[in-house]
Amino acid sequence: MGDVHKDPLAELAFRLRTLKAQKRLQMAALVQRTELGRTTVSQALNGHKVPSEATLVALAKALGTDAEPLLALREAAALVPQVRKTYPRRATHRLAGTRAQPSFEERYLGYVKERHSHLTVVGLDLSRPERARWPLDAAYLSLELAERQEDWSAGGEERGRPSVTVKRAEHALAGCRRVLLRGLAGSGKTTLLQWLAVAAACDELPEELVDWRGRVPFVLPLRTLVRRGPLPEPGEFLSSVGAPLAAAQPEGWADGLLARGEALVLVDGIDEVPQEHRGATRDWLERLLAAYGDARFVVTTRPSAVPEGWLAPAHFTELSVRPMSAGDIGVFVHRWHAAARHNAATDAERSQLDDLEAALRLTVRAQRDLAQLSSTPLMCALICALHRDRRGHLPHSRMELYEAALSMLLVRRDLERSIDIPEGIQLTEHQSVQLLQRLAYWLIRNRQTEMEQTTATALVDDALPAMQAVAAQGSAMQVMAHLVGRSGLLRQPTMGTIDFVHRTFQDYLGAKAAIEAHDFPLLVNNAHDDQWEDVIRMAVAHARPTESTDLLRRLIKRGDTEHEYRSRLHLLAAASLQYATEIEPGTRKLIEQRARALMPPRSQEEAEQLAALGPGILDLLPGPQGLEDDEVGPVIRTAATIGGDHAYAFLSRFTQYLNYESAHHELVEGWKNFDAAPYARDILLSFKKRPSPVVQNEDQRKTLPLLAPITSVTFREPFPEGEIIEHLSPEHTERLHIYSGHALTGLKFLHRLTALKELTISECKQITHIDDLAGLKISELSLVRFPDETSFDALSSLTELTELALYTRLPWNCIGEAPAPPGLTGLRLAGWIETTLLGISKWRHLKKLVINSSPTPAEWREISSLRNLAELYISEYDIGQAEPLPSVTHLHLSPLDADTQIHLIPDKFPNLESIVIHCRNSLPEIIDVTPLRAIEGVKISLTYAEGVAGLEEFSPDDIAIYPRPRRAGHTGPIRLDYA
After folding, report:
1. What number of CA atoms fall less than 13 Å from residue 599's CA on the CB side?
2. Is residue 337 over pLDDT 60?
3. Residue 976 pLDDT > 60, yes or no?
C-alpha cells in the first residue's frame, strides 16, 4: 500500500475499493444501489476528490458497512489541502508535451465540459430560477435502452430467445459504433447526449465504453442547424452551433479528428427536421459516414419520425429509450429532492422536503396512473415540482399537470420571490400565456423548434397594440427579456436565438393558440406529420366539446379518404379521446369503430402503437376468446405495456387460455410492469407447465421462490453469481440465460446446477476465458459479447455439446480452428466476429446453420459439403456465389438491400419445403415471389414486406404474411395494408 495511509483521501478510496471487491459488485450495480451518479461513485473510489457526507453514507449502506469510520477519514481528508490531479486523455499523442498556452483542442474540450455539464431541472427552485441548473453528474440517470436482436436468427425470434434485449445505457452503447436512439418527448435522449459529450471531454467515460474514450465530442442539435441553412461540413460544426471558439479553430482540425476516428458526433433531433427535409438530412449523414467511417455517431429521434431500419444500410444499431421503471422513478424522485435540499435556505425547508419525498415515493407506487405519468424524466420532474408547490396535492391527468406546471412557472415563482422585477415588467399568467403561445404557434406552423430573437421580438411587438396593459410597461424587447428571464419556459440556447425549455411546452401552448384561432383545417391537414401528433392531442384537450367533436370527425374523415395515412389518422383520433373533456356519443362510437378495425394487433409494432393510446384502449381490446394464433401475443403485450389495475384484470383472463406459446412468452415479459409477487401468484403460477421467468429487477428476483421449482430462467440485469443462483434448484434448472453478466467474475458456480442443459452467457466484461465451463454436461451454449482475446479453449471439453452460438469476437482466423466437439448439429455465428467460415465442413453432422455475413465462394463450397444441413439462416448474402445445396429444406433470408435474389433460389435450393424472407431492413418496395413457383409445394413466409407480387401463383395455404394484412382478395402486385 506504500504511503496510502499517509493520505486520508487515498485511504478512504482504498477502503471503498476493498469493500466493493469483497462484495463482488460491478460499478453498474453499485451505482444502482447507491442511487448516485456514476462519476460521483467513480471519484469516491479513485480518490479524485473528497466525497460528500451523503455520498459516503449511501456507499456505506450499499456496501453493508458502518459509515462512521469512512466519515472520519473524510473529515481528515477535508482538512488536507487537495492538489488537483490531472489525467492525460487516452489519445495522448494529441495532447502530449508541455505548452505555455493550452492547445485549441484542450480549450475546446474545456468549453464542451462547461457548456453541457449542467441540466435545467424543471421546477427545482421557484424563487431562484438560476439555481434550477444542477450538475449533470448529480442529475443524470442511466436509463434503460432496448435493442432489437436481429442477429439471433438472421431476423427472427427463435425458440424463445428475446427479439428485444434491455440494458442500461452504458451497456447498450458498448460495442456500438453508430447508434440511432429513439425516445419519446422528455425521455432523456438529449440528456444522454450531454452526458456522453461531457464524459468524453473529461475522459471519464465508464469502463463499459472504454472503446469510446479519447474522442472529441461534437454536439449538433438539428433544431439549430436546419434553421441556419444547409447542414454543415466538419469545418463548420463549431460555427453552426454558435461556439465562440469557432474563429480560432485551426484549418483542417475537425476533418483530421473525424478522419482518424477520434471524433464522437452527437446529432440530436431528427424529428425536429421537417419531414420533407429528412431525406436530405439522411444524405448529409451518409456523406459524413462515407468520408469518416471510423468516427462514432449517435443520432436521436422521436420514435415515429423515421421508419425502422432508416439508417440500417449504414449499419446503425437502433436503440430505444425505455420508460423509467419503478426503481428508476424512485431514484429520480430522490435526486430531485436532493437537489432541492441543496438549494433549501433553512433546516425546516429541508425537513419538509424529506417528508415530501417520502410521501411522493409512496404515492407513485400506490397510484398506477401517476406512475405512468412519471415514466419520463421531464414528467417526473414536473410531478416532483408540483407535489412540492402544492404541499403534496397533485393533478390527476397529463393536461392538468401541464396547466398546473405553467401556472407554477409563470406566477408562483414571482409571488414567492417578493422582490422588485429587474426588467420593470410584471405580467399576469394570462398575459404571459397569450404571448408565449404566439411564439409557440409560429414555431409549430414553421416546423421549427428554435427562432431568431429578432423574430420573437417582432411577434411580441405585433401583439402589443392589442395588449395595452403590457405595452404600457415597456417595449417589445423589454417584454421579451422578461419572458426569457422570468417565465421559466423560454431559454437562449445560443446568442440571438430563442426556444422553449422543452418541446412539450411548445406543443401545449401552440395547440391552445390553434384552437383559439379555429385553425381546424390546418391541424387536420398536418395530422399525418409526426411533428404535429402531440399538438393534435393537446388541441383536443383545449377545445370545447363541440370543437373537439368537430376536430375528431375531421380526422376520421381524412383517414377514411386517404388510404396512405388511414391507420395513422384513425389511431391518432383514438389516442385523442382520452384528452377530450366531453365527446358527443356518436363521435365516440365512430372513433371506436375505426379503432376496432385496427384490432386485434398482429405484431409487436401494432401492440406498441395501441398501448400508446393509454388505458382507454383496454375496453376495445378483444380476447381471449376468438383470437387467432398471431393475435394472442400482441394483445397480451398491449395490455401489459399499458399496465395498471385494469390491465391486470384483463391479463388475468388469459390464464385460462394458455394454449399458445406466444401467450406464455408475453405474460412472462409483462411481469416487469406489475408488482412482482402478486403477478407471480395470480398469473405466472396459473401456467399448466412451469413458467420460464425473465428477471429484470430485484423484486422479481426475490419472488423466484414462489415459482419454484424453476426449470428455465432468464436474467437481464447484472446480478452477481450469488444472487443468480440463490433461488435456483440444482436438480431442476435445465436452462439458464444470463444476458447481462457484467457483475460476474467467474463461471464455476454453474457446476452447482447439475441438471443444466442449455446456457447463455452475455456481456461478461470481467471474464477472459471459459475454462470454468469445462466438464459441464450442457448440450446448448450461447456466448455473446465477451472481451476481445477471450480464450474459448474449454469448448473442447464440452463433449455433449450439440448446439453452439458465438456472437462475440473470436481468436481464430477461421471457424475451423474452433475446438468445438465434432458432434455439433447446430451452429449460429454473428456477422461481425471477423472469423471466416473456412473449416466449417469438419462438423459433418450440422443440420442447422445461422450466419449473418455473405460467404465467399470458398466458404460456400464448404457449406455445400454439409450433407445433413437442412436449415440455413442467412443475412447480408450473395447467393449467386453459392454452390447448389440440395439438402437444405428450410431457408431463412434477411436481405439488406433491394436485391433479394429470389430468382436464384430454385436453382440453389431445389428441394426447399419452406422459405422465410425477413424484410425489416431491406429496401425493395415490392417483393416478387413468382420465381418460387418453380419449387413444388414450397411454403412461403414474408415478414414486414412493403408489398408483394406473384401471390396469385400460389394457394393461400402456401403463403403466410407477417404481420397478417387486414385486407385480402388482391390479385397481382399489392401494397400490404396492415390496418
Report:
1. 27
2. yes
3. no
The whole-chain average pLDDT of the chain stands at 83
Bridge partners of 815? none
Domain layout of the chain by residue ranges: 4-79, 110-116+142-323, 324-412, 513-596
SS3 317: strand
3-state DSSP assignment of residue 182? strand
Provide the percentage of residues in the chain whose pLDDT is more than 70.
87
What is the separation, in whole angstroms, between the first and last Cα of the chain?
A: 68
CATH for 110-116+142-323? 3.40.50.300
Helix H, strand E, coil C: the string for 868-934 is CCCEEEEECCCHHHCCCCCCCCEEEEECCCCCCCHHHHHHHCCCCCEEEEECCCCCCCCEECHHHHH
Give the H or E element holding residue 976.
none
Strand order in the sheet with 497-500: 451-452, 497-500, 490-491
Query: Running DSSP on this structure, what letter comes out for residue 622?
Result: -
DSSP state at residue 409: I
The string of pLDDT tens digits covering residues 425-449 is 888 889 999 999 999 999 999 988 8
* pLDDT over 70 (residue 975): no
Evaluate the omega torsion of the peptide bond into residue 624 and state whether it is cis, within 30 degrees of 0.
yes
Per-residue pLDDT of 648-662, as tens digits, reads 888 988 876 656 667
At residue 661, the 3 state secondary structure works out as helix
What residues form DSSP beta bridges with 948?
927, 974
- Judge contact between 939 and 911, C-beta under 8 A: no
Q: Which of 633, 583, 581, 629 has the alpha carbon at shortest distance from 603?
A: 633
pLDDT at 971: 39
Question: Does the bond joining 709 to the residue before it have cis omega, within 30 degrees of 0?
Answer: yes
Give the CA count within 13 Å in the CB-facing half-sphere of 511: 30
d(CA 720, CA 27): 12
643: Cβ contacts below 8 Å, ≥ 6 apart: 368, 371, 372, 673, 674
| Nearest partner of 843 among 907, 878, 795, 782, judged by Cα | 795
Average pLDDT over residues 222-227: 83
Sign of CA pseudo-dihedral 604, 609, 610, 612: positive
Q: Is the dihedral of CA 171, 175, 178, 180 positive or negative?
A: negative
Q: How confident is the model at residue 137 (pLDDT cuts 50, 70, 90)?
A: low
Q: What is the pLDDT of residue 755?
A: 95
- Output the nine-digit C-alpha cell for 841: 465442413
Asked whether this chain's domains 4-79 and 110-116+142-323 adopt the same fold, the reply is no
pLDDT at 123: 56
Q: Output the 3-class SS for 373-398.
A: HCCCHHHHHHHHHHHHHCCCCCCCCH
Q: 915 φ, ψ to 5°?
A: -140, 135
Alpha carbons 968 and 117: distance in angstroms, whole number: 55
| DSSP assigned state of 129 | G
Residue 395, pLDDT above cutoff 80: no
With a CB cutoff of 8 Å and minimum separation 6, the contacts of 563 are 977
> At 34, phi and psi to the nearest 5?
-85, -20
Task: Give, as one character, the DSSP assignment of residue 346.
Answer: S
Task: Please say whether the beta carbons of 437 and 515 come within 8 A.
Answer: no
Domain covering 4-79 in this structure, CATH number: 1.10.260.40
Is residue 717 within 8 A of residue 740, CB to CB? The reply is: yes
Residue pair 782/757 in contact (Cβ under 8 Å)? The answer is no
Residues 6+ away with beta carbon under 8 Å from 142: 28, 31, 38, 168, 169, 170
Least confident of 77-81, 144-148, 844-848, 951-955: 77-81
Question: Is 909's pLDDT higher than 50?
Answer: yes
**DSSP structure class, residue 410:** I
Judge whether 532 and 275 are in contact, CB under 8 Å.
Answer: no
CB 773 within 8 A of CB 794: yes
Q: Percentage of the chain with pLDDT > 90?
A: 37
